[in-house]
Protein 1
Amino acid sequence: MDKKPNIILIMTDQLRGDCLGYAGHPDVKTPYLDTLASTGVMFDRAYSACPSCIAARAALHTGMEQSHHGRVGYEDGVPWNYEHTLAGELSKAGYYTQCVGKMHVHPLRNYLGFHNVELHDGYLHSARYGSVPYRESQFYADDYFYWLKDQLGASADVTDTGIDCNSWVARPWTHEEKYHPTNWVTDRSLDFLRRRDPRQPFFLMASYLRPHPPFDAPQHYFDLYSGKDLRPPFVGSWETDEYLKRDGRIFDSKTGPADPELMRQAQIGYYACITHLDHQIGRLIMGLIEHEIYEDTVILFTSDHGEELCDHHMFRKSRPYEGSCRIPLLFRAGSGTGITVKSGQRCHSVAELRDIMPTLLDIAGAEIPDSVDGKSLLPLAADTGETVRGWLHGEHSYGDFSNHWIVTEHDKYIWYPETGQEQYFDLSADPHELTDLAAEPGCQARISQLRGYLIQSLKDRKEGFTDGEKLITGRPYPPTLETASMP
């Protein structure tokens, strides 16, 4: 039988597509990921079409676009009952499948086709408050929390820093570094390599929580950035500080802090978490080398969504702007995998999280289910000039900030369904979205074309966003569609 390559999916949470050394960021240092990039292919136009944790992971695990997997916003407690999943299909193809870290599904111990899951979902409000059933309490169901209390005592928690899981407040980790959840994911991933059956190919999803808040990297990593002049957040000519003035003193606001020093501290904490993450990924790479399987392994690195980090007076995710929706996507295949990769190259095709499932199934030689909407990126790794789509529809149910958008390799159109406001950005000339061209006469033909793509994407949706000819504002926009509870 032909030997199948091992597959490792390194998943991060809330990591911007531009906050990496190999992506050209002037401040953030990521030497191990830069090393992977130098021997792999970087997809520099990769997006999360519905950029928050649950919806993004639904696309990852099912290969579906959002109207099919049914998650168009953030809502906990909705069962995951999908027939075809990434891990399930790889298991059928002869892989031993293991996840370490974040799943963020329902119920918490839903394995989604993995043979085994060592779980850490971070601080989930829905599984921590009030009287919850035993099976849904993080204190019992989450393996990291269970381990941390065994190591440090019953009172130990990730909240010991005093930082909320959506906060822009930053401060170093209060315990020894070895107890940090980023280290734990690497520790358990390395232990999986020790325990694996060497005769069977494996799929390991190393699913890290950081750099999602809390910004609590160990002190060493804060020290790397605290004395540096950091690039300020991007604020364009179209901005309004209305919400910043209203909410900029709230520690978990959607605007970030109004205080410039707290804004700088948030940047320091975020970058510290990224470099700490990078070093722990380095440990995982060294483990693969020591087990002599590095060259027999395919590594795919990505994130579920980004982080605005005070760009446009915004914080967190769910927005249609690059900081929130553009993600890193890196593909590296070892010399023993038999897979051709153009090392050190960039592919400009618009890619999305739904493409990961068909890509990894393609690598495994497994059949891709008809339910999958994504496209395999494997041919693009060998020929970076190819493309899988000309445009992508993204969206997020987010109250007054609900949004739909169309993005291409070169530009972006945004529509706000609550108000009807439109925006248009020339990403080739203005990658940080500083100038809104929606009112420019010379852009109207292009805006009309992109608006047409959005109407095409929405015309069969039950929300009634369009009659097929024009967009309609003020329609109900729930975070979860009927398709999210498939039998």
Note: The chain has two domains: 6-390, 395-485.
Protein 2
Amino acid sequence: MRQVQKLPDSPQEPIKAEADQLRKGNLIVLTGPSGVGKGTLTKQLLEAVPSLVKSVSVTTREKRPGEEEGLDYFFRTVPQFDQMCEEYLLMEHAEFAGSWYGTPKQWVEDQIQLGNDVILEIEVQGAKQIRQRRPQSLLIFVSPPSFEVLKQRLEGRATETPEKIALRLKKAQEEMLEKNLFYYEVINDDVALAVNNLLHIVYAERCRIRKPAVISQK
């Protein structure tokens, strides 16, 4: 059963001193074009990996049927979202398909200090911000087996108008050209194989001694 998260109104008290002795967690960014299957992969990864938690994003988009506050997203108005940006409460934020999305910074930092790996399932625009601000993060790009398969998946969801689907596909073409900005690529053709590849990446990074080399910003 998924646990409802609470969005902090302001930075919390410092974590107690004994937490400093714990292994700090990794920040894992799972990104890729809309419809590539990031949600499915994240769900299975969370079920398979201990001490891995998902950050719940803040969004200004309308709630879809079946979605719950604090489980799927923190749903906020545009003025509320703007205030969070002004108060530097978001680790990253990005606009996509007419709505804004962002990652609550304090909750993520607290979990990392406690030794948990935190996974962000976010759009490419936001993932690029994380790459610039926290290049030591584990940056993974999820690709479809082909653009045609991606188109079929988006149309098959039947949750948006043809106009919005067309917008997502146009954006997806641009995003797929940027995959080399990230550290790993996982192709989501077979879900079980994609999850297995992600498992290997996550566990290998937990064993890492040296920090990864930072990819050039060019």
Note: Residues 191-206 form the longest helix (16 residues).
Protein 3
Amino acid sequence: MNPIRHIHLIAVCGTGMGSLAGMLKASGFHVTGSDRNVYPPMSTLLAAQGIVPYSGFDPAHLDGADLVVVGNAVAKTNPEVAAMLERGIPYRSFPQALAEFFIGDRHAMVVAGTHGKTTTTALLAWVLTAAGRDPGAMIGGWARNFEGNYRLGKGEYVVVEGDEYDTAFFDKGPKFLHYRPRTAILTSIEFDHGDIYGHLDQIVASFIKFVDLIPRDGLLLAADGDATVASVAARAACRVETYGFEAISHWRAEAVRPEAAGMAFEVRKRGDPYGAFRLPLLGRHNVMNALAVIGAADHAGLTPRDIVEAFGRFEGIKRRQEIIGTVRDIIVMDDFAHHPTAIRETLAALKMGYPSRQLWAIFEPRSATSRRNTFQTAFAEAFDLADRVVIAKPFAAEKLPDAERLDVARLVADLNRRGVHAAVLATADEIVRTIAPQLAPGDLVCVMSSGGFDGIHSKLLSALSSLAPA
């Protein structure tokens, strides 16, 4: 290849691609990009970094490019892809480019699993940063400590969220196979991504390939209490350390309790006292995430004191138990939960942290899997801890055959049979119009969706404000 000066990104407005564009720009490359829909917040974030993306796809956008990075949702029929192939311009997928330009021969700490990846990645990156290790990082969500979802860093370590979703039209394997893990965290393995995986065995096969990448002198931190994780971890050639609440866990949490909008717990390492910790995040699932970080940080040479101090200054992730606003002592919260396990754990965490509040769960089935009937029964069990549940119409349901769609009417009927007060309200506007007059001081409304849900949070806060006494 000729020297690379100008890099063009097709579908630059995706979260990962936008972050990669920023990293490349900060590294001194001339960066351009294009996307079908260019609008805030990504267009604003890119513009702040000196990148003004083209709206729409046109072969002319590739003029002068030395390298093209192709997003995973881009088809071979895209006009810019067709021009790229015709002109013979070198190209990479997003994970290939991330590995080539920013991982290289650095010590990659890769966080993989169905649940908890984003929080665990952000927390680990922050702990290393706070300890002065200056890591690089690529995170699948907006980390408040970094005011973004990446950092370049010049240190030995780079922390990467490892996604099992496919890579590009020319590489249907999972993204995390490109990330060269030397330390890896495996949080959980469940069925997800029903648009590309047909069954759990296919997902397990991907995770086995991931674990196979860890060198013999590397480390795998594997969550206890998950039989599928245990079976995959057993295939590893490297050292394996488990973490969880089990007596046999290498890293074990005990004396776990909620405390001031967070969790306090004590940790044992191989049965010996290691330290007392406090994390400003709710839920036993977040204690699990913290245990994985403690194990990885200890492996990197940090002390318990380093980790304790960093935990105390962790500011969390947007869209993870994020309080959007409070009106008349009614809390409106946003959460990314869209898998039955994530919903169940989120509701358990909120009940633990806000035991006296009536808990409303507002759920939009939006992801490729949640819109399908794959979890029809599991969803009915996931909402048991909610006091009131509202299920919205599945996003873009018309794109799925009737036989594959989640049946929300049946789901609500099943919830009511289980003693959970539930209703179907199709749209964000209908939900706001219906529930705003019913909400009372002391209620907590947790909106769960993997997308924007038509701005429901701001609409609900506005409606509550208009109902407030003058």
Note: The chain has three domains: 6-96, 104-312, 322-467.
Protein 4
Amino acid sequence: MAQGVDLAKHIHLIGICGTAMASLAGMLQARGHRITGSDAAAYPPMSDLLAGLGIPLHQPYAEANLDPLPDLVIVGNAISRGNVELEAVLDARIPFTSMAAMLHDEFLAGRESLVMAGTHGKTTTTSMLAWIYEVASRTRPELAPSFLIGGVAENFGTSFMVRPAVDGVRQPFILEGDEYDTAFFDKGPKFLHYFPDAAILTHVEFDHADIYVDLAAVKTAFQRLVNLVPRRGRLVAFDGSENVSECVARAFCVVERYGFQSDSHWRLTDLRQQGTESRWTLARGGERFAELRLPMAGEHNALNATAAAALAAGQGVPAAAIVQALATFRSVKRRLEVRAEVNGVTIIDDFAHHPTAIRETLRALRTAYPGRRLWAILEPRSNTLRRNVFEEALVESLALADRSVLAAVFKSEAIPVAERLHPENVVAALGARGLESAVYADADAIVAAIAPELRAGDVVAILSNGGFGGIYEKLPQAIEVSPRT
């Protein structure tokens, strides 16, 4: 394994279109390395990011993508034995490492590591915290953040930034801490490489059913992260989850709870939501801290903002900068992102990966677009949603929509039949509640079926953690030629 990288290396990333991998590619290129990469299939926003950076992207995987041989290969966590490029790397004994190990070795040393972790809300909370620090740095330059986010933060127009080191200053590095495994040769969570000085723990639920056998295994992973925070550090932890309480119970550092509980150190009160804006009062230790405004809908987003505000304040960021930053926060690509408004139909893109995330997305859209007919268009694509362990929870979440449409399970053949989600069962359960729903083979079939049914005022939430067969472009085009009022 590589322990460090000298300048002017040729580094190749296998699985480069992963959000963290593409960001790391940009970070390494900015340091003067020659970067190449490969993936099975590219889709926005990371394909757009790579194209903008001028980083060559080879599709599909092939041994020829390693010609000429790179000095170092970074292997994405989606890559397993049998991948033709990985096999060639092993045969040729090309030095290789993981994304998380490279990030630690090359970028985190000497910085203050601030890690956002949890089953839900990591990407948005990381983006919020990075923007808070950015706003604060206008008057306190030592707070200028470096960051790595699992999505494109719209305030920055990128998913990463690395500030030059300043002698004598321990600068903040803000990063999303993923509990998914690190690589085929390192099955521990990526976040165990990040050694946080302070961290946020948003939620802990059973997820990633392909690598965790049960909730207990998930909690063990988060407990190990908590165990890495030093005594001088800080944990900001959600107060509405017994699982979170269990995970932080044996922390050696200060733990500050946040949420709606009356005895929490950081407490939201008087939460008001109007359209796509949220306002609330935030108390710290029982005393008023600030009046906060966020141009985003959803209780979950107010909680994410509170977590970011709490960690920033605890690290010495002024309250005025926190208030200003949250009021000007512009969200993250693929998080309640309005992709199109055509003939009065609003199309929303959301990176859905878990029934709880789907539930909170649909709740937020109900708040943002009251009185409008809400469609949920779901591609069961994540390793969690492709499995039937969450079938009942998925029904409960989709029941918040007026109409639900499901695609066939993505690469269903990779999931054992006994474990596989059957979308027709979800449709039947929704139908038993009197809710209209249907299942179609793919994006093209969905577009053909629903475009003639859409009418002015409808809100369509497209829920997927992938490209979904180009539906984000195909549906608006179809609506243009199939208007209904």
Note: The longest strand covers residues 266-274.
